[in-house]
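Reviewer 2 asked us to include a model.

Predict the structure of this chain.
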Amino acid sequence: MKKVTIHTDGGCRGNPGPGGWAATLDYGGHHREISGGNPATTNNRMELQAAIEALGALKEECEIDFYTDSIYLKSGMTTWLATWKRNGWKTKSKKPVKNEDLWRRLDSLASKHIVNWHWLKGHNGHAGNERCDVLANMEMSKMEKEFTPAELRKKLAEFAAGNQ
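Predicted model (structure tokens):
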């Protein structure tokens, strides 16, 4: 089984706001970088999207050391997910799980692999995390250039209306 190291990061300018996600995948001597953005999203959605895209890029079952600076992502995958599924995608307080659509996709992708989830402190000199931060910020800048301020406001209003 191939052993892959993945680093991810996601964020947005404003929360919600224009967002970006990024991942690096390393296997043997191979290195791949992927990234993308969304004009209206949250930092947590971008963290989840980075993980989804990274796992989705793998072509076969792998053993993965997965590094994230998101406690939300790591805790969700290692602690909360089993309870949410057992409770019909409700939290302990019986509220719907936020970002359920992304959690379900991530759960499905992660189940195809052996994933060892690791949290690391962001902006702390860890090369993989720092590279993902740079790429995610580049994607945020792309969103800010691709859309006018008025278009971004409209996208944010649509996003807010859909997340009530």
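The mean pLDDT is 95. The CA atoms of residues 78 and 117 lie 7 Å apart. We have added this to the supplementary material.
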